[in-house]
From TrEMBL:
The keyword Transmembrane helix applies. Keywords: Membrane, Transmembrane, Transmembrane helix. This is Rod shape-determining protein MreD. It comes from the Bacteria. The chain crosses the membrane at residues 9-29, 109-135, 141-162.
């Protein structure tokens, strides 16, 4: 029998998609004067990891794929490559979420930083492997550092603006 998704999953997915696409809209706005400076953080990736580590029951893998695939199309990245990397990374974080739940935030931040680094390295290696053009290594490292440094701000904003809180001790999925 087909099970109807619960209200928490539907509402969480809709709020996530709205937030992810709002971040994408802001990213696409022409705010610079044409001079490329420092690359900004990937706030969408930080939001995905924050959401998966806070409320894994509210964010299905298909919703992550939809959000990142739209981002791939609009940012003209190789179609589906970053989507696959983000899906693998977010599912790895989702599997480890019960063990990471009781850890302090600094440990979570370190683990997310390592995960983001592994995801960016895997993406770059796949680009090289299939002979796609790759961005300058310095730009990729700066974007990695900006994303890792922005992660606490994304968690704070998700908590206070979207009400995204971690599961309690007695509350499980």
């Amino acid at each position: 029998m087909i099970q109807i998704p619960n209200r928490s999953l539907v509402l969480g997915s809709l709020v996530f998609l709205g937030a992810a696409w709002a971040l994408l809209f802001i990213r696409l706005l022409p705010l610079s004067e044409g001079i490329m400076g420092w690359p900004g953080p990937d706030l969408g990736l930080a939001l995905i990891l924050a959401w998966v580590l806070r409320r894994p029951d509210q964010l299905a893998a298909a919703v992550i794929v939809l959000a990142v695939l739209v981002e791939d199309v609009l940012l003209m990245r190789p179609l589906g490559l970053w989507t696959a990397v983000v899906l693998i990374g977010s599912e790895a974080a989702r599997l480890r979420e019960p063990r990471w739940r009781d850890q302090p935030f600094m440990v979570e931040w370190l683990r997310v930083g390592l995960l983001i680094g592994g995801m960016m390295l895997g993406y770059r290696l796949m680009q090289i492997l299939v002979l796609l053009p790759v961005a300058a290594l310095g730009q990729v490292i700066l974007q990695y550092l900006a994303t890792v440094m922005a992660y606490p701000l994304v968690v704070f904003a998700a908590r206070w603006l979207l009400g995204l809180r971690r599961h309690g001790h007695g509350e499980t999925t």
